[in-house]
Design a protein that fits this description.
The chain is of the alpha/beta class. It has helices at about 35-45, 60-75, 120-130, 140-145, 145-160, 175-180, 180-195, 215-220, 265-275, 280-295, 315-325, and strands at about 10, 15-20, 25-30, 50-60, 80-85, 90-95, 100-105, 135-140, 165-170, 195-200, 230, 240, 245-250. It has a nine-stranded mixed β-sheet with strand order 5-4-1-8-9-10-11-12-13, with helices on both faces. The chain has a four-stranded mixed β-sheet with strand order 3-2-6-7.
Length: about 325
């Protein structure tokens, strides 16, 4: 039986990242939750070729040019990124405390990504999503969009989900972007209704009107047997709810946390790619903990390639061997 080609479209906003280092110096890079996930997915699945595309809108300024070049360096395809004349990318600044926890400060009012699905070329962009096997997005992906863009995307995602395309939704909730938790709740419930896999933190259960406990999450998601759910608890264990089962996957122990930026994004990248490669949920979560555990031991969203655990080499090699014999 021929194996299905893996093609992932990650939707969201990549921004200019400014980070204050311990010595007071400031470095500039690029990042954003769904781009971080796309980059780690591309890195972990490098043996699959270029299979991850980033879906967004950027400007025609020099920073946007550098950003697109950076995507390609990370193995992420940019042909679904609209270039809007006279617009620019958003910016965020990170401050990290002594425990590795970070605070974000954003400048995104004029960011091109807000109009991704209502600009010239957006109709073709939405149509192109139908050529992918999996579409990944987050709560931030939806929150940054203007209302018309968001509605167009949601309608298309629901259509694709009913046609058999996997939709992977990471809750990633930022209160300031929504103007009220009720606004977010209505959208989250709608997306969860047609998603294949959902990843949320314990804190994000509040968006759904739930207590911030694993038990509350289990009770809520167990009523949706068609859904596969991962409840993340920061450095703690992950709880999986799928097929009528609840399974706990212990986290990888880390001696010293340097920076938690992109820990959740790298976990999601590993988990979703693991499932697309055919791993069972528990094994995918085990490997996701390993990668996230490596990420928190380095500064910045995208850690050095050599520091990223190669957790899928066997599965990718087996796919290559199978393809060669078909």
């Amino acid at each position: 039986m021929s194996q299905q080609q893996i093609r992932v479209a990650s939707i969201g906003e990549c921004m200019i990242e400014m980070q204050c280092k311990p010595d007071g110096s400031i470095t500039q890079a690029f990042g954003g939750d769904t781009f971080n996930t796309a980059a780690y997915m591309a890195r972990l699945g490098a043996g699959l070729g270029t299979f991850v595309s980033y879906v967004t809108a950027i400007g025609d300024d020099p920073f946007s040019d550098q950003m697109a070049a950076f995507w390609k360096e990370q193995g992420v395809d940019d042909h679904l990124a609209l270039r809007l004349k006279g617009r620019r990318a958003g910016l965020y600044f990170i401050r990290t405390d002594a425990n590795g926890e970070r605070r974000f400060f954003y400048w995104r009012g004029e960011a091109a990504a807000r109009e991704t699905f209502e600009s010239e070329g957006s109709k073709d962009l939405l149509e192109a999503l139908g050529t992918y096997t999996s579409i990944y997005l987050s709560g931030i992906s939806l929150a940054v969009l203007k209302r018309e863009s968001r509605e167009r995307l949601l309608e298309r995602l629901e259509e694709l989900a009913h046609a058999g395309v996997a939709v992977d939704f990471d809750g990633n909730y930022r209160p300031l972007l929504w103007g009220g938790i009720e606004n977010a709740r209505a959208v989250y419930e709608r997306v969860i209704g047609f998603s294949t896999r959902v990843l949320v933190t314990i804190e994000e259960l509040e968006v759904l009107g739930l207590a911030q406990t694993v038990a509350a999450g289990i009770d809520y998601f167990a009523k949706k047997p068609q859904l596969e759910v991962v409840i993340k608890d920061g450095p703690g264990d992950a709880t999986l709810i799928h097929g009528g089962k609840v399974e706990i996957v212990p986290a990888t122990k880390v001696a010293k946390v340097v920076d938690t930026t992109a820990a959740g994004d790298s976990f999601s990248a590993t988990y979703v790619l693991g499932r697309l490669l055919g791993l069972q949920p528990v094994e995918a979560a085990v490997r996701a903990h390993v990668v996230a555990g490596a990420v928190v031991q380095h500064h910045g969203a995208i850690i050095p390639e050599g520091a990223t655990p190669d957790v899928f080499s066997n599965e990718i090699a087996q796919r290559g061997q199978q393809s060669a014999t078909e």
